């Protein structure tokens, strides 16, 4: 179950807590903090709840639960020690379409109370869906030390100046650049020193200095092979600064999820036999958005400079006077081999690596097959799944032994990764038998024989079994 994150405005709205013990007191306190009109229903109250009743802060409905208690409530929290009563309250709330939280029972709850980091007016909420509340609390404790307390006063200052900022910078891209500059300006430091008047003056100066017509730019960013943990820190920063993201089909959803939520995402799919966006159209999109003052991220699978037409795109940008930068990504040969447990070089097996692409008949005929067929080297073949028969025939014809090991890594570094192993003479047979699909990387060379014994990620390679005595997880990371 995936929850929909929601921040509710309960100010002045009635909320019901059923249960008058310590847990009910904690729940009532949080609701009071949010400005709700709190009613607690219970035969008896804790001292704290009783004090709030005496002070007129909450209302008390004494006695056992009655359905009529739900009549005016916007949401309900069940915090008793009676499971049967919790089940009844949850059913009645569901029938009335009321949000209900049943303490320590995720299955009966239609909303969950998160662990909260309070930097009012900024609130950071962490939820495990009710399944691991201690984990949520642990994450909150760790994040508490990372979230500067000045975030709250800064948010309040920006809220007070919001109208002025929007009037001065009506363009969204210009406002984003202003906020990016603000966070690294002296303003946060002035607020830490309890100098709000000086901080406001500094915001006004920065606002006056920010151009309403920003210059656009393009970041050529390598997304890697799919595992979002392989994205570089600079790459993550670029995704969170982007106004527009032009992404390839093979960029994983997990990597795209790291980008800013309001960035415009445009898929520029280029798939074998189905280029519905041409390279010229990609160039035109980069130019259009950059000239409109937007920060464009051209997000490419793997590394943009390894069979990715990155050079062509930079030449185009340079020719049109568009500012650009390049953020490298982990190319498929490195990531796929590593996740398959295959060292690309090994002093006993291979002293060199060749990166080759063979995605069409025209390119396969231009390769130096005599050099590629030499022993004691590793071939990493990109986009070669449609040309496996030609690869196999040419390598064997130029002297590469049919017993040379190979490994095909399909969806390398992703949860659905598959590794198919065999020898060069059985390459086509195994790829066909296992219905290999793109994206897949082919590794040919003696090092590929190490995949069955050094595998550590995902399922064991197909075509060979792991050894009987697999190393313990600790040994794999030692």
Automatic annotation (TrEMBL):
Its EC number is 2.1.1.107, 1.3.1.76, 4.99.1.4. Keywords: Cobalamin biosynthesis, Lyase, Methyltransferase, Multifunctional enzyme, NAD, Oxidoreductase, Phosphoprotein, Porphyrin biosynthesis, S-adenosyl-L-methionine, Transferase. Residues 121-144 form the Siroheme synthase central domain. Residues 151-207 form the Sirohaem synthase dimerisation domain. Residues 216-478 are annotated as: Uroporphyrinogen-III C-methyltransferase. Residues 218-427 form the Tetrapyrrole methylase domain. It holds the Pfam family CysG_dimeriser. The modification Phosphoserine is found at residue 128. Residues 1-203 are annotated as: Precorrin-2 dehydrogenase / sirohydrochlorin ferrochelatase. GO terms for molecular function: precorrin-2 dehydrogenase activity; sirohydrochlorin ferrochelatase activity; uroporphyrin-III C-methyltransferase activity. Pathway: Porphyrin-containing compound metabolism; siroheme biosynthesis; precorrin-2 from uroporphyrinogen III: step 1/1; Cofactor biosynthesis; adenosylcobalamin biosynthesis; precorrin-2 from uroporphyrinogen III: step 1/1; Cofactor biosynthesis; adenosylcobalamin biosynthesis; sirohydrochlorin from precorrin-2: step 1/1; Porphyrin-containing compound metabolism; siroheme biosynthesis; siroheme from sirohydrochlorin: step 1/1. NAD(+) binds at residues 22-23, 43-44. The active site is at residues 248, 270. It catalyses: uroporphyrinogen III + 2 S-adenosyl-L-methionine = precorrin-2 + 2 S-adenosyl-L-homocysteine + H(+); siroheme + 2 H(+) = sirohydrochlorin + Fe(2+); precorrin-2 + NAD(+) = sirohydrochlorin + NADH + 2 H(+). InterPro entries: 4pyrrol_Mease, 4pyrrol_Methylase_sf, 4pyrrole_Mease_sub1, 4pyrrole_Mease_sub2, CobA/CysG_C, NAD(P)-bd_dom_sf, Siro_Cobalamin_biosynth, Sirohaem_synt_dimer_dom_sf. GO terms for biological process: methylation. HAMAP family: Siroheme_synth. Then it catalyzes the NAD-dependent ring dehydrogenation of precorrin-2 to yield sirohydrochlorin. Finally, it catalyzes the ferrochelation of sirohydrochlorin to yield siroheme. This is Siroheme synthase.
